[in-house]
Every structure is written in C-alpha cells, then in structure tokens.
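Course assignment 3, question 2. Fill in each field.
Student: A.L.
Task: Predict the tertiary structure for the chain below.
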Amino acid sequence: MPTFFRELESHRQKAIPDLQPARERQKNYRGHPIDRTCPLYGDAVVDIRDFDIKGENFYNRSDNPPYYVRAPGSIDRLLLRKSVATRLQTVDRRLRPIGLKLHVHDAIRPLEVQRYFHDDWMYRRMQEKFPDASREQMIAEVEKYWAAPTTSEDRPAPHSTGGAVDLTICLTRNSEPLYMGSIFDDATELAHTDYFEQDRSLGSFSDLEARSNRRLLYWLMTEGGFASNPNEWWHFSWGDQMWARLSGAEAAFFGPANYD
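Answer field:
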C-alpha cells in the first residue's frame, strides 16, 4: 500500500455515521440566527492562493461537466473568510507530507451565479426530469442542491457568506483527483456524503475506493471543525448558518460577505 494511503488509513477505514439525523437538523437552516456582535462577523475576505491552497473556480470554466458553460457573473478567484481559509490550510497541511492536497472548486459565489443555476439551469433539468410536477415541487427538487438566491442579510445563501467551500482531494504529483464515486455537483442521492455507507453490497473496487476516499475527506474536514453538508460530499462550511445548525452552535458568525 502506498505510503500516502497507509498514513491516513484509519480515516479511510472509519465509517461515516448515518447522516439522516443531520438532514433533519439541516431543514430551515437559513432561519438560524446570526450573531452580528461576534468579532468574526466582520472577518476579512481573502484569496485562498495566499494560503497556498490549490483550486480553480469551477463555474468560471466551460469544461465543467455537467454544465459545459461559464456561468454568468462567475469570478476567477476563490475567496473565503480569513478564519475559514486558515482552518482549511491546517487540513491541507495534514495532506501535503503524504503526497495529497486539497483542491477547491468553489468558495464565495456571486449572486448572479447562484441565480443562474437555481432559476435557470437546474430548473430546466427538473422540468425535463419531472414534466408533470408543479412549480413548488420543482423548486423543492432544485433546492436540494441549489440554495435560493437572495440579498437577505438574515437568510444568505451559504456560498455568499465566505464560510462555505466545495472541494476534493488530489494527488500532489499530478493533481489527479481521488475517486469519490460521482462528479462534482451530481444532483442525485449518489452525491450524498454517506451514500456508500448505506446497507448495500459494494460489489466493485470502484465503490470501495469511493467509500474510502469520502471517509478520508469527511474525517479530515470534520476534525478541522467544518460541518459536512450531508447531501453533497464536497460541501463543507464553518461559521455560516448551515454550520451552526449542524454543529449545534447557538448562532452563525457570518452574514453576506463583502468583496471587490
């Protein structure tokens, strides 16, 4: 077994817990209070490149399945709150000595990007998939994976706060991503963080590898203080309303982020 896997094999062997209770807690997370008196409420926005964290904005590309389009309003930077980037750097430094690194797909997401995928791209996909569904039913399906865009100070979309990040793990040598069992932004149950932990027979090496790699990412990030979105293996957050609801914190730290 290669050294980089042997060093963190305990994480790859440790099962992700049943996340159904987290899905229940997650409901209406945007109603969770935000503590505007907390010093972190005004935490600075930083570029992850300044913390030597690698990545590329997925929505600012056109080679980005399943979309294959550069999203309107997308940016070429990956921006997070400083406290979040610092925590992420700590996770990344655990991986580097064993030939692995984090790769960030998305961080702060402009409102126009959120609106495009929520109102347009994903809505059209749901119309194709559920042609007889009502608008309310389709919106409910869309919002399993895309939060509603808003300018509300009290109910911001997670990626507008600077506290949410989408990422995976790659090999340092050639930036090849570890196999996670689905593409980034897969909008089905296959994307659920605990999908491969369910009571099912894993009949292929591919499934076993995906389960091990999801476990590695989950445990490294949660040990770093991040909350895992149970419906998206790639989505983690710290300081936003989803993190507060899932972690049991009394209030979130972050509202909408200000950045140039």
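Instructor remarks: The chain has a mean pLDDT of 94. The radius of gyration is 18 Å.
Grade: pending
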